[in-house]
Write a structure and sequence with these properties.
Layout (H helix, E strand, L loop, with lengths): L19 E3 L6 E3 L6 H15 L3 H14 L4 H11 L2 E5 L6 E5 L11 H8 L3 H27 L5 E4 L11 H14 L5 E3 H4 L9 H10 L2 E6 L2 H4 L2 H14 L6 E6 L17 E2 L5 H12 L22 H13 L3 H14 L4 H12 L18 H9 L2 H72 L6 H34 L8 H14 L3 H8 L8 H8 L13
Parallel strand pairs: 5-6, 5-7, 7-8, 8-9
Antiparallel strand pairs: 1-2, 3-4
Length: about 575
C-alpha cells in the first residue's frame, strides 16, 4: 500500500501505526492517514493529486467521500480544510522546505473551522500538535492577506477569463476581455482585469488582490470561447468562489459571456444564469448597458453581506433554528452549521441544533432523508449528542432512522454476499464438469491400456504349447483374469462418470460480465460508488453500464472519461 506525500507527491515510507511521517524527498514532516485500507490510500492519493493541481473542488469531493466512509479519519477532514483555503505547498527559497501558500481566502479563521475541529478531535496527540501548527501558519497567511484586502479600493466588475493557451499564446478570450475592460473603464467603472490590474504586482502574491476584487465586485463577467477555457483550473477557481459569495450576497451577479460555443456546453453551474452571446451584433453595447445598471450607485446595494448579520440583534434559538433549516434546504451546509453553533451558544444542550449539524455533515436538506441514507451515521458525533441531549420524541425519531439505515446496509451487504456466493457456486460446478471430462478421458486411456495388455497376454498364452509350459500358461491365465476384473471395474467407473456428466450437461460457464454487473449494481445502490465503478469499468458496453458510469461521474472524479482498464 503506497501513500503519496501531500507536499511533493513522492512515495512515503510509512510504518504501521504512525500518525506522522517525514518525506525522504522533500524532507517535510507531515500528518498521514491511517494505513489500514488500500481503498482509502488510493482515495487519498487521488485527492492529494487533485489538490496539488489546484483542482480544489474535485479534491474536496474525494476527501468528503473518505469522511463519509471513514468518519474517524482525521487526515480527510484536514484535506477538506486545505481545499477550502486553497492550500498549495511550495518551496521556501530561503530554506528549501515546503511551506503553504493560499489560493482561496475566507473571512473566517481556519482555527474556527468545523473540519479543522474534526481533524484534531480524531487525531492522536502528535498529529494534533502538527495540525495546530499548520493551522496557525495558514491563519497567519490569511490574516496577512486580509490586511492587504482592507487597503484595496473596491471594484465594480471582475472579468474572469483564460489568459494563455497550452502553448503559451494569448487566447481570444483575453483579447475580448480587454475590449470589455476598455469599454467599461471608459464609462467610469473600476474593473479588475488581471492582465492589467496585476501588471504592477510582479513578485508579489496575487491572491490578496484577486480576493479583494472578488469580494467587492458587484458583477463578474466570465468570458469564454471554449468549454475547456471555462473549466480551466484557475478560471474555475475564480468563478466558483464568486458563485459561493453570491449565496450570501444577493447583490452580486455573474454573467457568462460566450462566443462560438453552444450555450448548453457551458459549465452546468451557469445553467440558470442569464448569459451574453458575444457572437451577436451589438453584444458589447448590450453588455455595457446591463453592467452599468447592475453597478448603479443609487440602488443602495450592499457591497458585502455577512451571513451572521442577517438577523436582529437579539435572535432567539427558535429564530436561529428556522434560519438554519432554510440554509439546509438551500444546501448551504457551512451557513447551517454556523447558525447551529449560535443556537448552542444560547442553549448548549439543544438537540435540534445538533440535528442541524448532523444534516449538514450528511448533506441532506430534510430530516426524513436520514431514513434513505445507505451509509450508517450512528458513529457521527452530532448523532451521539442528539441521543444525549435531544427530547425523547427527537431521540426516538432519529434512532428509528438510524436503525432503518443499518437494516438497509445489512440487506445490501447480504445481497452482495449472495451474489458472490452464487457466482462462486456456479464456477465450482463448472470446474467439477471440467474435472469429470478429464477423469473420463483418463479412465478411457486406462481401459485402452488394459485391453492391450489382455491381448498381449492371450497371445503369450497361445504360444505356450510345450510339455513344460503348463505352469507358465496357468500364471498367464491368472494375469488375464486379474486384468479382465480390473477392466470391468474401470468400465463401470467410466459409465458412472458419463452418467454424472449427462446429468449436469446443462451447466454452463459462469457469465463473468453479468457477475460484475450484478456486483456493480449492488454497490451502486449501496452508494459505494468507487466500488461500483471498479466493476462497471471492466464491462463497458454491457447492458446499461455506460449510462451507469455516466451517473457515477457525479461521484467518482473523471469516471465517465477514464479508459476501460
Amino acid at each position: 500500500m503506497v501513500i503519496k506525500c501531500k507536499m511533493c507527491g513522492g512515495d512515503l515510507n510509512i510504518t504501521a501505526g504512525d500518525a506522522v511521517c517525514e518525506c525522504e524527498y522533500c524532507g517535510t514532516t507531515q500528518t498521514i492517514p491511517q494505513a489500514d485500507s488500500e481503498k482509502k490510500a488510493n482515495l487519498f492519493n487521488r485527492a492529494n493529486k487533485l489538490r496539488m493541481n489546484a483542482d480544489f473542488d474535485k479534491a474536496a469531493t474525494v476527501y468528503a467521500s473518505i469522511t463519509a466512509e471513514f468518519p474517524e479519519e482525521a487526515e480527510a477532514y484536514w484535506g477538506l480544510c486545505l481545499c477550502k483555503y486553497g492550500i498549495e505547498y511550495v518551496d521556501d527559497p530561503l530554506t528549501g522546505k515546503k511551506i503553504p501558500t493560499c489560493h482561496r481566502t475566507l473571512s473566517n479563521s481556519i482555527l474556527e473551522d468545523s473540519d479543522y475541529d474534526q481533524a484534531r478531535e480524531n487525531a492522536d496527540p502528535v498529529a494534533k500538535r502538527l495540525y495546530r501548527d499548520e493551522a496557525k501558519e495558514i491563519d497567519r497567511i490569511q490574516k496577512a492577506i486580509l490586511d492587504i484586502v482592507e487597503q484595496e479600493p473596491p471594484y465594480d466588475v471582475f472579468i474572469c477569463y483564460k489568459e494563455t493557451d497550452d502553448e503559451g499564446n494569448r487566447t481570444e478570450d483575453s483579447v475580448l476581455a480587454q475590449d470589455i475592460y476598455d469599454n467599461l473603464t471608459g464609462k467610469g467603472l473600476r474593473v479588475f482585469f488581471a492582465r492589467i490590474s496585476l501588471e504592477d504586482k510582479i513578485g508579489e502574491q496575487y491572491e490578496p488582490y484577486i480576493y479583494a476584487a472578488l469580494l467587492s465586485s458587484k458583477v463578474m463577467l466570465a468570458v469564454g470561447t471554449d468549454y475547456e477555457y471555462f473549466d480551466a483550473v484557475w478560471v474555475k477557481n475564480e468563478w466558483a468562489r464568486f458563485l459561493d459569495m453570491m449565496k450570501t450576497d444577493r447583490t452580486k451577479k455573474l454573467i457568462p459571456c460566450y462566443k462560438d460555443i453552444d450555450a448548453y456546453d457551458m459549465p452546468k453551474e451557469f445553467k440558470n444564469l442569464q448569459a451574453q452571446d458575444m457572437g451577436k451584433l451589438g453584444w458589447e453595447q448590450d453588455l455595457a448597458r446591463g453592467v452599468m445598471k447592475l453597478c448603479s450607485k443609487d440602488q443602495n446595494q450592499q457591497s458585502y453581506v455577512d451571513v451572521q448579520n442577517l438577523h436582529s440583534v437579539n435572535p432567539t434559538a427558535d429564530s436561529l433554528l428556522r434560519r438554519a433549516m432554510v440554509f439546509l434546504e438551500d444546501g448551504l451546509w457551512d451557513e447551517a452549521r454556523k447558525y447551529a453553533d449560535r443556537i448552542l451558544d444560547l442553549e448548549v444542550e439543544n438537540g435540534q441544533a445538533y440535528l442541524v449539524k448532523l444534516m449538514a455533515d450528511l448533506k441532506i436538506t430534510r430530516e426524513e432523508e436520514l431514513r434513505n441514507l445507505q451509509i450508517p451515521f450512528d458513529t457521527n458525533d452530532n448523532y451521539r449528542k442528539i441521543i444525549r441531549f435531544g427530547s425523547d420524541e427527537l431521540k426516538s425519531r432519529i434512532e428509528g432512522y438510524s436503525s432503518a439505515v443499518l437494516q438497509t446496509k445489512e440487506t445490501l451487504e447480504r445481497r452482495i454476499a449472495e451474489i458472490e456466493a452464487g457466482y462462486n457456486a456456479e464456477e465450482q460446478a463448472y470446474e467439477e464438469i471440467l474435472k469429470k471430462d478429464e477423469l473420463i478421458e483418463e479412465t478411457a486411456e486406462k481401459i485402452g491400456k488394459i485391453q492391450r495388455d489382455i491381448s498381449a497376454c492371450k497371445r503369450q498364452k497361445e504360444s505356450l504349447i510345450g510339455l513344460f509350459d503348463g505352469k507358465k500358461r496357468n500364471e498367464v491365465g491368472n494375469t488375464i483374469q486379474a486384468l479382465q476384473k480390473e477392466l470391468e471395474s474401470l468400465e463401470q467407473e467410466k459409465i458412472r462418470l458419463e452418467e454424472e456428466q449427462n446429468t449436469a450437461e446443462e451447466t454452463v460457464k459462469p457469465d463473468k460480465k453479468k457477475y460484475y454487473y450484478d456486483l456493480g449494481s449492488a454497490f451502486f445502490e449501496a452508494r459505494r460508488y468507487d466500488e461500483a465503478y471498479q466493476y462497471y469499468n471492466q464491462i463497458r458496453g454491457y447492458a446499461d453500464v455506460n449510462n451507469r458510469i455516466q451517473e457515477l461521474s457525479a461521484f467518482v472524479p473523471n469516471a465517465a472519461y477514464q479508459n476501460n482498464g
